[in-house]
Target: Cytochrome bc1 complex Rieske iron-sulfur subunit
Amino acid sequence: MTHEDDALEHERASWKPSPGLAVAVSDPVENPGLPPHRARVTDSDPAAMKRAVRTVYTLFYLSLAGSIWAVAAYMIFPIESGRIVDIRNNNLFIGLGIALALLAIGIGAIHWSKAIMSDKEFIEPRHATRGRDATREAAVQGFRDANEESGFGRRTMIRNSLFAALVASVIPGITLFRGLAPESTPENPHAGDPVYLLSHTMWKEGERLAHDPSGLPIRAADLTLGSVVQVIPESLASLSHHDGYLEEKAKAIVLAVRLLPEQLKEADERKDWSYDGIVAYSKVCTHVGCPVALYEQQTHHLLCPCHQSQFDVSDGAAVIFGPAARPLPQLPITVDDEGYLVARSDFTEPVGPSFWERH
Model:
């Protein structure tokens, strides 16, 4: 044994715990058990219990009022008018109504559980297996106990107001669907047919491609190699919001990209759909309609930022990754006598999500 080993043994033998230092012992720690139950104010004061009950069903009826107001706001401030003030008020007051409806249900449910439902601690023994005849009765008894502890069966005002609030809370959402597919009218017989509406845009033969949002037409010579430009029909710039500017733009928005002509892989029937390496594709993703906007020059890929669908611009905007079910619709283009890019026709297929084509 070395001198260092002797010193270590001596140090171990002479060590004593300092005062106040906790030392582990082999005796088990006694279970302190649950703290004594502390009664709530509502448990000992009937008046407080009545106030809590009134508060809960008042919140549920307030939620009901919020849902009704959201539906009323949808009608009072019609977003179809196209006026900015109506659009702002529509979003503001519908949002406030839905927020009040959901918030009041949440606060009411929490207050119900904390102030009215039984808060006695209990132990539920766990069984290794189930399936005995007594299991069914035990489950029924469990519902009976829960009903008794929560007061759900006895407190009719709370129960009925909760049912009314829950049913009403979904009505604003259902009401908002009304704006997605307006009903047909004699003046607009195709208003309720999304397949028809998405199969026809403002693009037509001779319609110039224009910068968004200025509406200035684009010359083919102005597009440099590798550039990508967001374009709209030239005539769209003169359309007012009241006349459906946003609706038409949402369908007709296009991305024009310039590649080397030899980089394009074009089907025989689409050889004349591009001009000197310039191709134009719908910007509306064929998955759920998000705007496809991210272009990678080296790979010629377009990326949809919502769900990461990728399209190959050099190969007919074919889907190479992601959930999109079909390529981006291509807009046939050429140039006019002044060198401006123009459309040969409208899209030959519906724009947007492919589910619009399903019947």
